[in-house]
Amino acid sequence: MDDTPATQAAGNDDVSTAEGARRRLPRTPAQLEGESPAIARVRRLIAKVAPTDATVLILGESGTGKEVAAREIHRLSRRCDGPFVPVNCGAIPSELLESELFGHEKGAFTGAISARPGRFELAEGGTLFLDEIGDMSLDMQVKLLRVLQERTFERVGSGRPRRADVRIVAATHRDLAQRMREGLFREDLFYRLNVFPIVLPPLRERLEDLPLLARAILERLALERPVVRLGPRALAGLARHAWPGNVRELANILERLSILYGGETLDRLPEGLSLDATTVPADEAGLPAMSPDPRDWLQTLELPEEGLDLKTFLGDLEQRLIQLALERCDGVVAHAAKLLGLGRTTLVEKLRKYGIDRGE
């Protein structure tokens, strides 16, 4: 049985907190939308680990939605009423990160004109999200490891230990195994963090989710402005790109298109649209290459002298086009449906009607 948050929400909009209160679940975040096995597995893992206090390590390329996944873990956890505090470990100079995480006392260093709580204190009772943990200096790794082991910390300039009642979720786009081999990441810290790893797939490995992702992103953009509508060939054009910036890049492109073409329907991508030059071959994406209007071949048809049975001819034509789409997509029904501008369930019904083997 599918136990993803999205499925749970569809079957029962309410979930119990530790205190027994009932809460209505908002819809799945846009970055986690999709029906691909890869993203479905991510949602199942989030649903499994969220109710626990286990430390989670989220791995994935930039733009795959690591902070979104961390927020979803917090939202579904027993700590959902507490704060969610993110900190980008790679964006803060190493000499300032200790104070940022643990806080400092007045006079602890030049410029410390008053005491200041750190992110651990601000996240008390909630979740602390340590983003880009792979960029943390070795000195800070030692200090963080001590906190994770002892669940206490001290403000800079103070000798008084403080309890750390926080749930840790860390994330990185780095290859931590390689960083450890290079002596840039502590092995003992890795095993402290890697209690429950979740790997977010890059968009190029879940291109079948692109239509659902695009729809979810556009629905959110529609709250602010008129949005663009994408025809099947425009979606096919998007699906042929490798998306090195992943879902974040897709969201940027859709926002740009909505600014330029809000309220319009694009049958194909506009000329000159700035997309990364790296593309996924059409056969790998399971989608057609851009070509002249496929309806042009209709102009070459001629009616036989003896006439024809139009109903039979159209049925045969539909069957043949479905078979061609399945062949091109290696039997993947979802891709073939996109190729034909149909919903997946509609195509499945037609396969049953004509007795066509999916080839899967």
Kindly describe this structure.
- This protein has 15 helices and 11 strands.
- The chain has 360 residues and is an alpha/beta fold.
- Helix 13 (310-328) packs across helix 14.
- The longest helix has 19 residues, at 310-328.
- It is elongated, with a radius of gyration of 26 Å.
- The model is unreliable at 1-26 and 277-293 (pLDDT under 50).
Summarize the structure.
The model is unreliable at 1-26 and 277-293 (pLDDT under 50). The chain contains 15 helices and eleven strands. The chain has 360 residues and is an alpha/beta fold.
How would a crystallographer describe the biggest sheet? 5 strands, parallel
- The total of beta strands comes to 11
End-to-end separation: 22 Å
Radius of gyration: 26 Å
User: What is the residue-averaged pLDDT?
Assistant: 82
List the total number of helices: 15
Strand order of the largest sheet: 4-5-8-3-9
Strand residue percentage: 5-15%
Poorly predicted ranges (pLDDT <50, ≥5 residues)? 1-26, 277-293
Structural category is alpha/beta
- Overall spatial form: elongated
Helix content: 40-55%
Elements, N to C (H/E)? HEEHEHEHHEHEEEHHEHEHHEHHHH
